[in-house]
Each structure stands twice: as structure tokens, then as C-alpha cells.
Specification:
With 112 residues, the chain is α+β, with helices and mostly antiparallel strands. It has a single domain, classed as 2-Layer Sandwich (YaeB-like fold), CATH 3.30.2310. A 5-stranded mixed sheet has the order 1-5-4-3-2, sandwiched between helices. The radius of gyration is 13 Å and the shape is globular. 21% of the residues are buried.
């Protein structure tokens, strides 16, 4: 069974975006079902592995958001192969922020 957890920073960003985009909780559930079905690194061009370590992979994906009329948010998550666990690291709207927080990702990897 897969487990999905969230960093505190992710939770804060998610709460803020969920107030703006009401479909976001359902959209994230849809992503979780997809990852549980097709695998932790996703399928196709919408999933990009940005770190491939021995025990953890960091993946960046697009999250289709109904409230944005199917335009997408970006989600950065870690997949821990040894624990079969997902950890959400960051979520953002591409129109508000150009790229992921690389420092947050580096800090997460160092703490793993």
C-alpha cells in the first residue's frame, strides 16, 4: 500500500492554493490514484525525475486543476523505494512562480 505524506511547507502552500482553487483537494486525490496505479515515477512527459538516488527519487509533475480549466499546477514529490512512501515537497502555480525551490529539494535530500 502506498502512503502519501506532506512536508509542512507543502501543506501551507496547498492550503493557500486550495482557497483559490476549490477543486485542488480532488485533483490531488486523482494524482494519488494515478501514482498508485501506474507507479511512482508516473508515465509520459508530464513526469520528470529531477533526482534519482539509491533510496529516494524526486519527481516533478503537472497536476491538472479543474478550477484552472485544466491548466496545471506543479507538484514536486519524493518517492522512498524502501518504505513505499510518497512525500509531497512543493506545489505551485507556474503563473506565480517560474521554477521549483531547489534549495528546499536539496535540504530534503540531505535530511533523508
Amino acid at each position: 500500500m502506498n502512503h502519501f505524506k506532506r512536508l509542512a511547507e507543502f501543506e501551507k502552500e496547498f492550503s493557500k492554493l486550495a482557497k483559490k482553487y476549490s477543486s485542488l483537494p480532488q485533483d490531488l486525490e486523482k494524482l494519488e490514484r494515478l501514482l498508485s496505479t501506474i507507479g511512482p515515477v508516473g508515465l509520459g512527459a508530464n513526469f520528470v525525475t529531477i533526482h534519482n538516488g539509491k533510496d529516494v527519487q524526486i519527481i516533478k509533475t503537472r497536476l491538472a486543476c479543474k478550477s484552472l480549466r485544466e491548466r496545471s499546477l506543479r507538484v514536486i514529490y519524493a518517492y522512498h523505494q524502501d518504505r513505499v512512501e510518497f512525500m509531497y515537497i512543493e506545489i505551485y502555480y507556474k503563473g506565480d512562480k517560474e521554477n521549483e525551490d531547489r534549495e528546499r529539494i536539496k535540504k530534503y535530500i540531505q535530511n533523508v
